[in-house]
Amino acid sequence: MAGRLVKSIGALIGLGVIGAGVFLVVTRPQPLPDEYWATAGTPDVKNGELVFSMGGCVSCHKKPGAEGADALVLAGGVTIDSPYGKFHVPNISPDEKAGIGNWTLAQFGNAVTRGVGPDGSHLYPSLPYGSYSRMTPKDVGDLFAYIKTLPKSDNVAPPHELGFPYNMRLALGGWKWLYFSDAPRVELANADATVKRGQYIVEGPGHCGECHTPRDELGGFKAGQWLSGAPNPEGKGKIPDITPGGSVASWSEGDIANYLETGFTPEYDTAGGTMVEVQKNMAKLPKEDREAIAAYLKVIPKL
């Protein structure tokens, strides 16, 4: 009897060890190789500036309260409150010590699109790499080149303030296993070039779903509810449903494009809350890109 018990316990321990090993393998950080990033080609800083606006990088990475030219000093320090604790946005200026001045393109690209830090650790999805994963190597390379032209800052943001178990980076591998994907959010048959461009911007660098899509208890997007609206992270009201069945259902493509350019709705209301910063960034895009966003929003599934 005792022998059987010992064997059973040993078997359970063995299974546990095997299970832990499988978990670690499946959820390990998975950066893309240097060869992948080499396909970015010769940097185009002008396009990098466009991608910078498209991604709204300045909104999070500028020093709190910075305006004008000062906003291009990507010193970090903004605090993002969440149900899991406080995330402090890092310095991504070209400073060699406090920022990303010593990073390679591969390190930058894997942080932005794979959620893997230069030291090989998982990064928290407060950096929306779940959306940025759809960015092309070219756009990532151009963005990196543009950031390197901006002023340096020696500011060091404080570490994140997260309680257990959210302070365990190892668990982020499990989160990625559940939610991380670079597949299209919406399958669109026979989409033309304009819609495809809009899909790329909205689902990728524009990361619109990060605010407009509801999340479950673990912070992943709820299946089948893409862009259907979500609680306002600022605590008041709701981020609107921007599918064809939502609050902008009566807006034409022209109305949407004009709103992104001017901040004015068809009812002559204005953008508010965090959308003010988003709209300012979208206003810097070419007219064709704003029209592409509008075209995409009009053909996604109605919820």
TrEMBL record:
Lineage of the organism: Bacteria, Pseudomonadati, Pseudomonadota, Alphaproteobacteria, Hyphomicrobiales
InterPro entries documented for this protein: Cyt_c-like_dom, Cyt_c-like_dom_sf, Cytochrome_c-type_DH
Protein name: Cytochrome c
Entries under Gene3D superfamilies matching the protein: Cytochrome c-like domain (1.10.760.10)
Bilayer-crossing regions: 6-26
Keyword flag Manganese: no
Keywords from the UniProt entry: Heme, Iron, Membrane, Metal-binding, Transmembrane, Transmembrane helix
Record-linked SUPFAM superfamilies: Cytochrome c (SSF46626)
GO molecular function terms noted in the UniProt entry: electron transfer activity; heme binding; metal ion binding
UniProt source species: Rhizobium setariae
Domain (Cytochrome c): residue spans on this chain: 43-151, 193-301
